[in-house]
Amino acid sequence: MSEIKRIGVIRDINGPIVTIDLPGVRSGEQVKIGELGLFGEVISLRGQQAVVQTYESTDGVRPGEPAVGLGWPLSVELGPGLMGGIFDGVQRPLSKIALESGDYIRRGISVPALDRTKEWAFVPNPTLALGAKLNPGSVLGTVQETHTVVHRIMVPPGISGELAEITPAGNYTIETIIAQVLDRKGVTHSLNMYHRWPVRKPRPYVRRDDGISPLITGQRVIDTFFPQVKGGKGAVPGPFGAGKTVVQQQIARWSNADIVIYVGCGERGNELVDVLETFPQLDDPYSGHKLMERTLLVANTSNMPVVAREASVYVGMTMAEYYRDMGYDVVMLADSTSRWAEALREVSGRLGQMPVEEGYPAYLASRLAAIYERAGRVETYDAGIGSVTLIGAVSPPGGDFSEPVTSHTKDIIETFWALSKELADARHYPSIDWVTSFSGHVHTAAQWWHKEINPDWEKRRATALALLARDAELSRIVNLVGPEALSSAQRWELEGASLIKEGVLQQSALDEIDTFCSPAKQYAILDLAITIYKRGEALIKLGVPISELQNLPLLAKMRRIKSMYSSEQLEQIQAFRGEVDQAMESIRIEYAKQGEPA
Ligand SMILES: Nc1ncnc2c1ncn2[C@@H]1O[C@H](COP(=O)(O)OP(=O)(O)OP(=O)(O)O)[C@@H](O)[C@H]1O
After folding, report:
1. CATH assignment of 457-595, given 1.10.1140.10, 3.40.50.11600, 1.10.720.60, 3.50.50.60?
2. For the ATPase F1/V1/A1 complex alpha/beta subunit nucleotide-binding domain, which residue ranges apply (predicted)?
3. Which of 168, 290, 356, 413 is the most exposed place for a label (fewest CB within 10 A)?
4. 583 lines ligand 1 (CB under 6 A)
5. Is residue 593 a contact partner of residue 543, using CB atoms and an 8 Å limit?
């Protein structure tokens, strides 16, 4: 990465696409455009000429103005001070910028992502002695970044050697040299507490790790029905207003990840404002501090052209990988990959590339796959296991899941939580549709559930899904010929499915008790609903009229129990199970008596 700046000239401007003459310029290189010094990136080369996509509006920029090649690709700063930050799509710190340039971001403004003046209390790694062998990722020491996050200061990728010097514990800025590393060629590398990394290049790790650890979100329809694992790839497609934001916020807040990175590439500014206002107010249920202490937001501001959205996903992913390298489990939420794909489409259109499906370029699928490929659970160099789980919201126009972005995404991801407009209209939240959603992790997650919670988890889950499928079939018959056409057993199946839907799947994010449900409570509730159904099924076979079962007050209680008792009150749920057994058993005894000869 040369740091020598080269100066060229602007030839042509087409919206955010600018053609420049700049000898020696490289593909991917960062360029400053015009007198304003707008940020841009070289996306193609034609002889001496380079095509640049700018991240800011080019209004008022004229051919003939200078273009400066910076000599490095789009990269981010990685070091203490990221947590709690709100950055734009090219990692400029929005709160700092607001201080410097007011609410409206002045174009061409250049503010480093990390504060150069703030001092951090650095504690050297006590296991390191002078002469210790260091590799990329070796932990030199730690800094308490926020109340909740310990930031491991690591040797950057590409550097290895012997520890020649390390600074004692103390307060230092990120630019202070804290260690000297002597490499095999005799070159000394002076390391401070941050480094830069090009966003389009995945950060290295030792190897992929195939251990399984479910990402517990506390949401029953996710954890029990369509589970995700740490390091997994998922998508939440949904039509407008179906509840994408709430699903993502619930994951951010309740999942058992250490770090949350939210990348907002929304189209409507007000959605983003909503996120920027809500996240800082959320409390972290695990630490008692604010959720922002372990969260970082990347938001595209409305005065940046759509092409900046394209970069923002890579910027977010690189920071996610950095915390993964410290041994953390990171969840990255990208909202939405549809808007990201539209940015690709716009750039490719301006470049005159041949559109393939619905105007998207032929490389849409491979770009989507490449970004999802960066998710995963890995063995880090020095910090154990870390993971990045990537969950992309997809907003298909008109809710049509067959459009290119949704269908390509579906081929790449393993977990698909499809939001349904019908369910949302019926106020069934989360509106994750159990017919079209899927998870490729059910059998692997089952290993964890069977060991930690109950060996019957997979069986119970399958019974519930089978009941829901029967419900769809039987509802069609009811719609055609009316409920009288159904036998008592079939009507009881409908009742069972309704217990699953209302008692298990529905979960209000606004309900103080039910907003989070531990795995043990999830299983207890599912088991209850299925027990009631199975016991009732047996009674109906004995000849008990369905009306007698439908009048049982325990059905109403089953529907409410999720909100009556918290995850800590499992004994009460067990006690209710006892009541269910008793009530069903007394009906059985009564009917068995009636059947006996007088
Ligand atoms: N799990 C939930 N519990 C309770 N209410 C919910 C839940 N999910 C969604 N809602 C309700 O639905 C409304 C819309 O949800 P949300 O804002 O998440 O939709 P969206 O799909 O993100 O919309 P957009 O298309 O604008 O992004 C919420 O304001 C809330 O009232």
Report:
1. 1.10.1140.10
2. 218-439
3. 168
4. no
5. no
